[in-house]
Design brief:
There is one protein chain. This protein is 50% helix and 11% strand. With 304 residues, it is α/β, with parallel strands linked by helices. It has two domains: 94 residues; 166 residues, 3-Layer(aba) Sandwich (Rossmann fold). The protein has a five-stranded parallel beta sheet with strand order 2-3-4-1-5, with helices on both faces. α6 links the parallel β3 and β4. This is AAA+ ATPase domain-containing protein.
């Protein structure tokens, strides 16, 4: 069926695979700004950079694109779905850099091992960058532990950078009163929202063309239905568009119309999540927090 699917439309690859693929990356206005914030964080050696977005918004794909642009002067560690207490956190971190903890090591031993690694990399002219994907799973206590790791930095030199990507609740966690010191260390932050209807249509055409198609294999009415059902979330757009192409091929249709999208929805093939919550701007609690918020807004303007 897979080869029949590709041959029917003349695709060289599936246009709507849900796996992150930098080669298929669609640079929406929001993605461009999010990527600019990530690059800004690396360029300025910001101790903490945070990017949030709904499930399937493209955060992981952005990180993969970012990793392809980093040079030999950075040592990158990537952690996905880390959980556990502070001791587990250090084991995750050491594992990300292929560092074996000393036999029988306790928390202090593992911290010293990591600190020695950061200092040795700095001496060799390399900056250590630690990236956490799905960082909302860490919880408030572990995030505070991450803040303590940034104390490795000293003087005017930044030895360690942290980049956190997560779902919208990550921003809620960071803005809790008990994490005020963590929020003050965040130099740049951005929320990657869902697509509007025009952007969804451009996204669908982009992926069809990248796969070797004309971009017209799904018509405008079908694109509008896909956007509405997916609520503008890229991963959901991929799922629905992929199934729509399968239904179209089975019906020997060269162009998918809205009727085909309606048919697969009636057949119960799509499970949709609740709408993305509206994120209120965090209310600054004191003068320092207001300065942090002002800095975030300036970063966003610079990235535009």
């Amino acid at each position: 069926m897979s080869q029949f699917y590709l041959d029917h439309y003349g695709f060289s690859v599936r246009p709507f695979s849900i796996l992150p693929d930098p080669a298929m990356l669609f640079w929406s206005d929001r993605h461009k700004k999010a990527f600019a914030v990530l690059e800004y964080g690396l360029m300025t050696r910001a101790p903490l950079t945070v990017v949030t977005g709904e499930v399937g918004a493209g955060k992981t794909t952005l990180i993969q694109a970012l990793l392809r642009r980093t040079g030999p002067d950075m040592r990158i560690g990537l952690i996905s779905n880390a959980r556990g207490d502070r001791g587990d956190l250090l084991r995750w971190i050491l594992n990300a850099f292929d560092i074996a903890p000393p036999p029988g090591a306790d928390y202090v031993d593992m911290f010293q091992t990591f600190q020695d690694f950061v200092l040795s990399e700095y001496a060799a002219g390399r900056l250590v960058v630690l990236i956490f994907d799905e960082a909302q799973n860490l919880g408030a206590d572990t995030l505070e532990e991450l803040r303590m790791l940034t104390n490795i930095n000293s003087g005017t030199d930044e030895l360690l950078q942290l980049v956190l990507l997560g779902q919208p609740e990550l921003r809620d966690i960071i803005t809790r009163p008990e994490l005020r010191q963590f929020a003050q260390r965040v130099s740049a932050t951005f929320h990657l929202g869902s697509f509007d209807p025009d952007t969804s249509a451009a996204y669908i055409r982009h992926r069809l063309q990248k796969a070797g198609g004309t971009g017209q294999e799904i018509d405008a009415a079908a694109m509008a239905r896909i956007h509405a059902e997916a609520r503008g979330v890229p991963r959901m757009i991929n799922k629905i568009a992929d199934l729509a192409l399968v239904y179209g091929a089975a019906a020997d249709r060269k162009t998918v119309g809205a009727d085909i999208v309606d048919e697969l929805i009636r057949d119960g093939l799509i499970l949709t999540a609740a709408p993305e919550p509206t994120l209120p701007e965090p209310a600054p609690a004191d003068r320092q927090a207001r300065l942090v918020l002002a800095h975030e807004q300036e970063v966003k303007r610079d990235a535009t």
